[in-house]
Structure prediction request, 185 residues.
Amino acid sequence: TLAGVFTLGLVAYVELERLSGSPYILWSMLGYIFFLMCFLPISTGYSRRFPPYFSQGLLTGQIVVALVSLIVHQGPVAPVLLVVWAGQLPDFFSRRLAFIQVAMSALAFYTIMRLCWTDAYPVISSLIYLGFQLFALSSSFARVSERNARERVEQLNQQLQATRILLAQSSRQDERVRIARDLHD
Prediction:
């Protein structure tokens, strides 16, 4: 969460500094605040209290802000929002759906660069950021897998402890029955 907020803050600072005096600065500032407000519930886990479509809606809000800011901010820093967005997908989507979404966002980024930017190398630039997005996505999938494995180990440990308690109770009961038989005999 802290890394995401820090990154978002730096991106917003650089891009808003570049837009000083522009008519888009207020809308850009509101866009970054909206991105942050969509990012925080997901990154802190608060959004898990609600149905999955709530988090998916927050992610949709983030990608919309990121793509609109790419139209307005023709600079090398704004696409970092796509990387931050991609890092959150594994918590709510399967590998296949997450990779499809990242591919679609890369295609949208390429289209925006081709139509709106003056970048001489839109293919290379969009592929570089696609690589960053895929790295964030795969790292997040590893994090989710590790969290799920840890949860399974905790469940198995709880089951093992419950079984051990039942075994100890059964052993004490068997010992009581044996002593009672010995006394009876």
Notes: Residues 122-184 form the longest helix (63 residues). The mean pLDDT is 90. The radius of gyration is 26 Å.
